[in-house]
Specification:
This protein has about 400 residues and is of the alpha/beta class. The protein has eleven helices and 17 strands. The chain has two domains: about 240 residues, 3-Layer(aba) Sandwich (Rossmann fold), CATH 3.40.50.2300; about 130 residues, 3-Layer(aba) Sandwich (Rossmann fold), CATH 3.40.50.2300.
């Protein structure tokens, strides 16, 4: 087992300092380019070689890591911590000192943990996990002018020095609708859960359909896992007098059991999945879709799976178990933190360092940050097959020609 595994697997806080002496060069790459608007022929991201390491000082560059070590999210927190440690080990960064504090199971403990690492000199904070904790702890970082890289997909948690590492549902909906429109689909419907996630997906769906010249024919909101059959739904999946289906595509952004409940309801209304394309988000990636005839042939947007598989093999070879998908974000966050620490202005110039329009090449592909702190990713489009997702449109390797 990798020597780091024993150290990282035993983290139990409230405050733990560690300096990691690492193996290799930089893995995450900052994209090079003009630094401004890129031309259509801009080259793909190029790896950045790690700067020479100065001799280790008694106190190195300090990065706060605020993740749950207790509570229901402790296992996820452990995986995020492992991935962050793994990044440091891969980066050859003996000048980095981690200040780790338990974010616990509540916003209040996340605030206390953030105060802890900031009070001990952290120049940047990675974490916490979840929108509620990020929003609560962000005030502490902002008061001290310290950048925070938080794990959330709620855009309201971002801004004013807080940057989010998650895959936003808005960009996934926009990507898959745009691809469907490019394939000639013009009439769209959506089946969306009630609640905040459904609200975000609904707004993104309406915007994306309109932007691509399509028409929203029907939208239904339902309690997650409880879509009920209705005559409106039956009409949606039944050919008209002319033999045409009322819509070309139906967006179902949920995955897992909630998605299976939706498809079972549609199947009960006579829907066979052959005449209308189902569209989804990255929530589909963790679902066993190949055995469901209604999702076969469906399209969804997300990071290409092969990139994560390489990271997962590296992680599993180190720690002995397979990481959750979110662990890749912690790896990227730590690598970004090291990039920022090594730029001429260090952490004091983090905003400029994170504002690169060319972005960064991370574990799950290309990403960059908007001015409001939300991320933008280069997403692939996958098609559901009996043997698993198949990439039908690769993720872009440059943001050239895309709005920012």
């Amino acid at each position: 087992m990798h020597p780091l595994a024993k150290t990282a697997a035993g983290f139990r806080w409230p405050l733990f300092r560690s300096s990691v002496f690492a193996l290799a060069g930089l893995v995450l790459a900052a994209c090079t380019g003009s630094g401004g608007n890129s031309s259509a022929g801009a080259p793909p991201p190029s790896p950045i070689t790690a700067a020479p390491i100065a001799p280790v000082q008694p106190r190195g560059i300090q990065i706060g890591v605020v993740l749950p070590a207790t509570g229901q999210a402790a296992a996820v927190g452990q995986a995020l911590q492992n991935a962050a440690q793994l990044a440091l080990f891969d980066l050859n960064a003996p000048d980095i000192e981690l200040l780790q504090a338990d974010a616990g199971a509540s916003a209040a403990t996340a605030v206390g943990a953030t105060q802890n690492v900031l009070g001990n000199g952290a120049g940047l904070v990675i974490g916490p996990l979840g929108a509620t904790s990020v929003k609560a702890a962000a005030g502490e970082a902002r008061r001290r002018g310290v950048t925070m890289l938080g794990f959330s997909t709620d855009r309201s948690a971002a801004g004013n020095g807080v940057y989010l590492m998650g895959f936003m549902p808005e960009e996934q909906v926009a990507a898959v609708v745009s691809y469907a429109a490019g394939a000639g689909m013009t009439r769209f419907a959506a089946l969306l859960p009630t609640g905040a996630y459904g609200d975000v997906a609904a707004a993104a769906f309406d915007l994306a359909v309109g932007a691509n010249g399509g028409t929203v024919v029907y939208t239904e909101r339902y309690r997650s896992g409880s879509l009920q059959p209705s005559e409106m739904l039956r009409a949606l999946v039944t050919p008209g007098p002319d033999g045409r289906m009322p819509v070309d595509a139906i967006l179902v952004p949920e995955g897992g059991a909630a998605l299976r409940q939706v498809t079972a309801t549609l199947a009960g209304l006579g829907f066979d999945g052959r005449s209308v394309r189902l569209l989804g988000t990255d929530q589909w990636s963790g679902s066993d879709l190949g055995s469901d005839p209604l999702t076969l042939g469906g399209w969804f947007a997300g990071p290409a799976p092969d990139r994560f598989e390489r990271f997962a093999a590296h992680y599993q070879g180190t720690f002995g178990d397979r990481p959750p998908r979110i662990a890749a974000q912690a790896y990227d966050a730590m690598t970004l933190a090291v990039l920022l620490a090594r730029q001429p202005g260090g952490f004091t110039d983090s905003a400029r360092g994170l504002a690169s329009p060319d972005g960064f090449a991370g574990v799950d592909g290309l990403f960059r940050f908007r001015a409001d702190g939300t991320p933008q990713h280069g997403l692939a489009i996958m098609e559901v097959t009996g043997s698993g997702p198949r990439v039908i449109r690769p993720a872009p390797d440059t943001f050239a020609g895309q709005g920012f």
